[in-house]
UniProtKB/TrEMBL annotation, chain A:
This is Formate hydrogenlyase subunit 4. The chain crosses the membrane at residues 6-25, 67-86, 92-112, 133-151, 171-189, 232-248, 254-278, 290-311. Coiled coil: none annotated. PANTHER family: FORMATE HYDROGENLYASE SUBUNIT 4 (PTHR43359), FORMATE HYDROGENLYASE SUBUNIT 4-RELATED (PTHR43359:SF1). The keyword Lyase applies. Keywords: Lyase, Membrane, Transmembrane, Transmembrane helix. The lineage of its organism: Bacteria, Pseudomonadati, Pseudomonadota, Gammaproteobacteria, Chromatiales. The keyword Lyase applies. Its main location: membrane.
Automatic annotation (TrEMBL), chain B:
PANTHER family: HYDROGENASE-4 COMPONENT E. The chain crosses the membrane at residues 6-28, 35-57, 63-82, 102-119, 131-151, 158-179, 185-203. This is Hydrogenase-4 component E. It is found in: Cell membrane.
Length: 315, 227
């Protein structure tokens, strides 16, 4: 198979698999809370329902409100397409590295916040300001954690980072441990999961992400929710494939790709179950404690850089 | 030095040392006493684990004893004594308000860089593994000192002092493959005696100023007495 075809296939897998991960997390969470829970395919049905419903737009909203869902969806999808899911050596690595990934996510977030404020409701503005507070603190931590990985591999391309890790074999790297902790905290904050934001609330004063989507309906809402699901899958794949890259397809044969997909799905199942367990055990923290939470992420990332320099390079 | 040249046990020692450094940072910014004591106990357990790993790697038999001693003393006995003391002083729920916590963390990061910079030219290149561990241990010692300087609560200052001792022990174990047993026993006994003395001091301080906030010791001057 040609390399670009595999890249395209992988890019299509992201929107196809994203609702499944969300459904799986919800299912595990329901079982842990002694409920039966909806089927794991429920998010697909929800998206379909929203896509066929009529789309209403507030009469105070501008054009930006209409185009924002498309920009958010496409930017998130493009960002996801740069993360190797089933195979290495994709041609897209030459186009986009980790910094482009962070930039695309920032673009999506910028339009999400603008759209939240656009309709002029109090909730939207509040959600947008909170989202910006969280992301302003999460982004430096994310970049610092990513730089730790980049310094180890001497490259900012995600594929070289993974290839370097695979070639090294099993090494206990203190810097990877710290970067892993930082990236997990950042992912929780960015995806609006429990210690920072509660994904299952729609009518609470404390909501962050949902507050910006209150005015959306129909296919606009479907795109926004789909983008959020892709973002969760993106962070999940980033964490499992960068820190545990074993099993990813090395060639473009059907067998290698199939086993790569099976392995990454297995890793994501484990990660989703861990996320659900964490969300069952933890409670949402107050908004004013979020900066402390993200400072911890920044400190972890900083220690990752330092321990890389002191313990691993040290001429 | 590349990490690939080290054995798995040496890598494990590096990992544990890095975690001990991280716990120093947690200790520095933890405001609740009971939680801070628990963090200190974990740091003691990490140091004991480093000792055990060095013993396994070097087949040094007396280090097994030393690891058991560290675990019993630093991870169990001293934290338990501190815990009991805070309960008797009625400080379980007290949480100190730190002035400028972010600045102190940045200062600690600078201390880590400084200790690496100090140690780097000191040791020959062949001993890179030892040198890196010493840099981390020195950072743990300096962060303990920073904690003693900037905390006002007497119990927190004692925790800073004890974590300094953890850093010294880490350096001794990893750099010299363990001190003679007599020295180690002496140090352990000293730490224990220091702990008992600190306990006596806590009660003395509280008797005289009704608080363990040592900044208030400055007010005990003659002029206030005369007024």
């Amino acid at each position: 198979m040609s390399a670009w075809l595999v890249a395209l296939l992988q890019a299509l897998l992201y929107p196809a698999l994203a609702p499944l991960l969300v459904g799986w997390v919800r299912k595990v969470k329901a079982r842990l809370q002694n409920r039966r829970g909806a089927s794991v395919f429920q998010p697909y049905a929800d998206l379909r329902k929203l896509l066929v419903k009529e789309t209403r737009v507030a009469h105070t909203a501008s054009e930006l409100f209409r185009v924002a869902p498309y920009i958010v969806f496409v930017a998130t999808w493009l960002a996801a397409a740069t993360v190797p899911l089933v195979a290495l050596d994709l041609p897209i690595a030459a186009v986009a590295d980790i910094i482009v990934l962070v930039g695309l996510l920032a673009l999506a977030r910028f339009f999400l916040a603008l759209a939240g404020m656009d309709a002029g409701t109090a909730f939207g503005g509040m959600g947008a300001s909170r989202e910006m507070l969280v992301s302003a603190l999460a982004e430096p931590a994310m970049l610092m954690a990513v730089f730790t990985l980049a310094m180890t591999a001497h490259s900012t391309s995600l594929q070289s980072v993974m290839a370097h890790h695979l070639a090294d074999g099993f090494l206990l790297r203190p810097s990877y441990l710290f970067a892993f902790g930082a990236l997990v905290l950042v992912a929780l904050a960015e995806c609006g999961r429990i210690p920072v934001d509660n994904p299952s609330t729609h009518l609470e004063l404390t909501m962050v992400h949902e507050a910006m989507l209150l005015e959306y309906s129909g296919r606009h809402l479907a795109l926004m929710e789909w983008a959020a699901q892709i973002k969760l899958l993106l962070y999940g794949v980033l964490i499992v494939n960068v820190f545990f890259p074993w099993g990813v397809g090395a060639s473009f044969g059907a067998l290698a790709l199939g086993s790569g997909l099976a392995v990454v799905l297995l890793k994501l199942l484990v990660l989703g179950a861990l996320l659900a367990a964490g969300e069952t055990v933890l409670a949402k923290m107050r908004l004013f404690r979020v900066p402390g939470f993200l400072n911890l992420a920044l400190l972890l990332a900083l220690l990752g850089l330092l321990s890389h320099v002191i313990l691993e390079v040290g001429a | 030095m590349s990490l690939t040249l080290l054995t798995l046990l040496q890598q494990f020692v590096l990992l544990l040392a890095a975690l001990a450094l991280f716990l120093s940072f947690v200790l520095l910014s933890q405001t609740r006493l009971i939680a801070a004591i628990r963090v200190f106990a974990w740091q003691g357990a990490l140091v004991a684990a480093v000792t055990l790993t060095v013993a396994l790697a070097g087949h040094a038999h007396h280090l097994y004893f030393s690891a058991a001693l560290t675990l019993g003393l630093k991870a169990m006995l001293i934290p338990a004594m501190l815990h009991r003391m805070t309960r008797r002083l009625g400080l379980e729920r007290q949480s100190e308000t730190l002035s400028r916590p972010a600045l102190v963390i940045m200062a600690a990061v600078v201390l880590v860089i400084f200790s690496y910079w100090v140690v780097e030219p000191m040791v020959a290149n062949g001993l890179a593994f030892t040198r890196n561990i010493i840099a981390v241990s020195l950072a743990v010692v300096l962060i303990g000192l920073l904690m003693m300087v900037f905390r006002q609560q007497a119990v927190a200052q004692v925790l800073g002092f004890m974590s300094m001792e953890n850093g010294l022990f880490l350096a001794a174990v990893s750099a010299t493959a363990g001190m003679p047993l007599v020295v180690e026993l002496g140090v352990a006994f000293d730490v224990l005696v220091a702990m008992v003395l600190f306990g006596v001091f806590f009660f003395q301080i509280r008797e005289s100023i009704d608080s363990l906030d040592v900044d208030r010791l400055n007010r005990l001057t003659e002029t206030e007495e005369g007024r």
